[in-house]
Design a protein that fits this description.
FAD/NAD(P)-binding domain, alpha/beta, 8 helices, 16 strands, 25% strand
Length: 396
């Protein structure tokens, strides 16, 4: 890890972030690593909280370079997919050995100067410093989307809290409670499986039915590998719930229309017509002892849980994170929180680029490095084969 500085006193590129998007930018971008400074509070992915959980993509799908087998070489023999901890170590090694200079620091501000950008940093030792750059790439990743202030005040937590507390053996938030997991994707399903052994019952409240890949969907962002366990729990739990011997935790999946806090209850509404899928059809009232919905109109049901004995877990996706400062705060945002940008990753501010979650790229293998100058490929001319292949398909 180097100290800050360059031969000219100014970096051609500063990459803000220390995760997979930053590694892709450094190792596959158009600026030589020797002319690049990486600034991050920590090196590694935002998935570190998953710990020993196995990721749902294969090792070759998670590469940040064009070197086949690079990640597989770090895994135990016979393993196709890394754990979150193994992948975190891979990202750290990728950045440390990339040839770029790396500084652990928090970015306090980014502003323009006559020649480019000035970044104000606070190092891990508390020292404030400034670095200068011609170009800046934001590769700062994302964080789990938080529930509203109302739901937070009612005790709702984000799904990463479940992983962190479970890793410490702390199940107090959900043990013996009804658990409502709000979300439709892999995070929701996999979180439901984590709390199921200790919860009284688990209901996944989704705004849509995603389906298992590839049996029900050809979308690579549909439910993947570890979510299969929850899929089975819904089916088997429905068959066994309330019947002796009861061996499987009760997990349900409901596509809901509304979710509210009403007095001392958490209340949601759903329609039978929206739940005639493989899991919803097993989760409707009458199918298990925990499905105690009240028919409020033709095909519409209302269900509720007491707030004091219910844990609400938010697993409704993620949102990009950015450094503070007037420049970034003033920039316009897309509805999903990303910064508008062109096909090169260039934002509204000349010389300021985005990649990864900040650019709306949903997975490692969908991540493309920002290009600080036009390339033949972007201009419509095919690049040589040795630089043509940028990614493969599958999400983390």
């Amino acid at each position: 890890m180097s100290h800050m500085g360059s031969r000219s006193g100014r970096w051609r590129l500063v990459v803000v972030g220390g995760g997979s998007a930053a590694a892709v930018q450094v190792r596959r971008g158009d600026v030589p690593p020797e002319e690049t400074l990486v600034v991050a509070e920590r090196l590694g992915t935002g998935m570190a909280f998953l710990g020993r959980s196995t990721l749902q993509s294969y090792a070759e799908e998670l590469l940040v370079s064009r070197t086949p087998g690079e990640l597989r070489a770090m895994l135990p023999t016979g393993e196709l997919r890394p754990t979150a901890a193994e992948y975190d170590a891979y990202i750290k090694e990728s950045l440390m050995n990339s040839g770029a200079s790396v500084t652990l620091a928090r970015v306090l501000d980014i502003r323009r100067d006559a020649d480019g950008f000035v970044l104000t940093l606070r190092t891990t030792g508390g020292e404030r410093r400034q670095v200068h750059a011609d170009n800046v790439v934001l590769a700062t990743g994302s964080t789990p989307r938080k529930p509203s202030a109302e739901w937070q005040s009612a005790g709702a937590i984000t799904f990463d809290t479940v992983y962190r507390e479970l890793s410490r053996g702390d199940i107090g938030r959900w043990a013996g409670n009804s658990v409502l997991v709000v979300g439709a994707g892999n995070s929701a399903l996999q979180t439901a499986a984590l709390v199921a052994p200790d919860a009284r019952d688990v209901t996944i409240l989704a705004n849509s039915y995603v389906g298992m890949y590839p049996a029900e969907s050809d979308d690579r962002f549909a439910w993947r590998a570890p979510s299969q366990l929850t899929y089975e729990l819904v089916v088997k739990g429905n068959r066994e719930c309330g019947r002796r011997p009861w061996r499987v935790p009760c997990v349900r999946h409901v596509v809901y229309e509304s979710l509210d806090l009403v007095d001392d209850e958490v209340r949601w509404h759903y329609r039978e017509a929206s739940n005639l899928n493989q899991l919803g059809s097993r989760s409707l009232p009458g199918r298990c002892r925990h499905a105690q919905g009240r028919l409020v109109s033709n095909g519409a049901w209302q269900e509720s849980r007491k707030r004091g004995t219910t844990t609400v877990v938010w697993a409704a996706g993620s949102t990009p994170v950015y450094p503070p400062g007037e420049l970034l705060t003033a920039m316009r945002r897309n509805p999903d929180g990303t910064l508008p940008h062109d096909q090169l990753g260039q934002t509204d501010v000349p010389g300021l680029y985005v990649t990864g979650a900040c650019a709306g790229q949903r997975s490692v293998n969908e991540t493309e490095p920002a290009r600080t100058k036009p390339t033949a490929c972007v201009l419509g001319v095919r690049e040589p084969d040795h630089v043509e292949q940028l990614s493969v398909t599958a999400d983390v």
